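Support request, please re-run this one:
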Amino acid sequence: MEPAPANGDDCDLAATAVCWLTDEPQPGLILVELTDVRGRSHQLVGKVAYFDNGDDLTPDAAYPRPALVRCTIDHVHHDVATVSTRWVSDRHGEPFVFDVSVTALQPIP
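Re-run finished. Output below.
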């Protein structure tokens, strides 16, 4: 049995890579979507390396496809975790913050 996620833990949040946007800047930009616990969809744009779950996010790949968003758990309450993004930020440099189901999180080994 895996330990319960805790405040300060790093994790990967399951998401969907929707499309490849551009090759520049290297290694390329993609559009990723995720859904929070309230059913709201959020879109993130960033370098492919921020969302890659292997080597399968490429310009020639078929989209949509699975992706991961690296996050830090800020707070856990029952089965809901408040997480903040590690590498992707808004135009002011602030991380995005989402309330997500604990089951959508994958511990980082």
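The longest strand covers residues 10-22. Strands lie at 10-22, 29-35, 41-47, 65-77, 80-89, 95-101, 105-107.
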